[in-house]
Amino acid sequence: MIKILKTIDSNLREISKIEDGCWINITAPNSHELVYLSKDLEIPLDFLTYPLDIDERARIEEENGWKLIILKAPRFEKGNEDVPYTSLPIGIILNPYRDIIITVCSVEINIIS
């Protein structure tokens, strides 16, 4: 799912198309969405897929002006009393030339929503 948001009149609102100054929140994307964004925004496809790997490590990469920050965020697992929290990778992709922020995660988590 791709959700495009922008601050308008001091409120975060969903908008219909990608424009400078927006935040693109990607949750559990399919391959068509990933390829579309990669081509449309000229983002390295790997930057969109790395955060979807549950075993991905926290790190920073840079390529063609795009910066990828991968961090691990806690996620509460209901029904697992022994280990109630796990961690999931979240990708934060930045491009200062386009003034766009992209977040990528394999599932919806509270820290982003």
Notes on the structure:
With 113 residues, the protein is mainly β. The protein has a single domain, classed as CorA soluble domain-like (Beta Polymerase, domain 2, 2-Layer Sandwich). Helix content is 14%, strand content 43%. It contains two helices and seven strands. The protein has helices at 31-41, 45-49; strands at 2-8, 11-14, 23-27, 59-63, 66-76, 85-95, 100-105. The protein has a seven-stranded mixed beta sheet. The radius of gyration is 15 Å and the shape is globular. The protein starts with a strand and ends in an 8-residue tail after the last strand. The model has no long low-confidence stretch (mean pLDDT 91).
Please sum up the structure shown.
The protein is mainly beta. The chain is built from 2 helices and 7 strands; from the N terminus they run βββααββββ.
Kindly list the characteristics that best describe this protein:
7 strands, Beta Polymerase, domain 2, 2 helices, mainly beta, 113 residues, 7-stranded mixed β-sheet
Shape: globular
The end-to-end distance, rounded to whole angstroms, is 13 Å
Beta-strand content estimate: 35-45%
**pLDDT averaged residue by residue:** 91
> Could you tell me the radius of gyration in angstroms?
15 Å
Strand order of the largest sheet: 2-1-3-7-6-5-4
Task: Give the helices and strands as they follow along the chain.
Answer: EEEHHEEEE
According to CATH, what is the class? Alpha Beta
**Total domain units:** 1
Number of strands: 7
Q: What layout of secondary structure does this protein have?
A:
Blueprint lengths: L1 E7 L2 E4 L8 E5 L3 H11 L3 H5 L9 E5 L2 E11 L8 E11 L4 E6 L8
Parallel strand pairs: 3-7
Antiparallel strand pairs: 1-2, 1-3, 4-5, 5-6, 6-7
